[in-house]
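User: Hi! I have a protein structure encoded as tokens and I'd like to know what sequence might fold into it. I'm fairly new to this, so please keep things simple.
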């Protein structure tokens, strides 16, 4: 039995078992199958449309949100996941649908989405110099220095990697930025060649996969998935890589 290839899913994105498509009526069975076969997380990143100055700020944000959901549905389809609706709780955190989780992120330049049968979080940030107040809130000097040396990069990139990794993890936990003080840089395992950072949160360490492209850092984390397939505007990057 295969799962996840074009021959295994129909246009609805539901998984197929022994030639028969499973629908939301088979939600529990389908979720178990997806958990068994999902060993690569697909993260889809696309340019943000409708950001010209001729649009109002409200219209630009609306374009971002719509495009982010389109990226999410594309990523979900690759995982054999279908979302009939996308809802949030009273705090704005995404609600899972029949055991399928989703996460989106958007900026004026890029939108991104990812889906899995476990909690996950995705974030994208442009490299820029933040204010001293933001730096002090999000990362200690020791953390910035550690990441700067680990990736052999400037302080701006080091901070952006930390900020994006922590935000992705806090999306996974559902806390949002309110939990920022709980996050610190975890161990730096030099034998782990996956590009990304270990983040410690509530005495647990989580690996956050990262990719740098076009002066942006994208971060995604899902504890049960060890590899990420990035699709950045049609530029595919394999599930493993080097720093």
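Assistant: Happy to help. Inverse folding works backwards from shape to sequence: for each of the 243 positions I chose a residue that suits the local structure. Here it is:
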């Amino acid at each position: 039995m295969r799962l996840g290839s074009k021959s295994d899913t129909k246009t609805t994105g539901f998984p197929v078992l022994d030639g028969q498509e499973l629908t939301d009526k088979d939600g529990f069975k389908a979720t178990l199958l997806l958990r068994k076969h999902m060993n690569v997380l697909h993260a889809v990143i696309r340019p943000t449309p409708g950001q010209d100055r001729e649009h109002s700020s409200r219209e630009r944000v609306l374009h971002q949100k719509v495009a982010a959901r389109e990226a999410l549905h594309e990523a979900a389809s690759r995982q054999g996941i279908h979302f009939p609706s996308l809802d949030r709780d009273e705090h704005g955190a995404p609600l899972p649908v029949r055991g399928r989780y989703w996460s989106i992120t958007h900026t004026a330049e890029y939108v991104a989405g990812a889906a899995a049968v476990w909690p996950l979080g995705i974030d994208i940030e442009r490299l820029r110099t933040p204010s001293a107040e933001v730096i002090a809130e999000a990362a200690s000097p020791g953390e910035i220095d550690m990441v700067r040396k680990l990736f052999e990069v400037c302080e701006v990139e080091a901070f952006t990697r930390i900020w994006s990794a922590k935000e992705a993890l806090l999306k996974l936990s559902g806390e949002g930025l309110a939990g920022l003080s709980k996050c610190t840089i975890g161990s730096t395992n030099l034998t782990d060649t996956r590009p990304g950072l270990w983040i410690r949160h509530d005495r647990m360490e989580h690996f956050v996969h990262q990719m740098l492209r076009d002066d942006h850092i994208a971060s995604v984390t899902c504890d049960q998935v060890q590899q990420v397939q990035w699709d950045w505007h049609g530029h595919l990057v394999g599930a493993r890589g080097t720093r």
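A useful reference point when you look it over: The first strand starts at residue 16 and ends at 17. Feel free to ask if any position seems puzzling.
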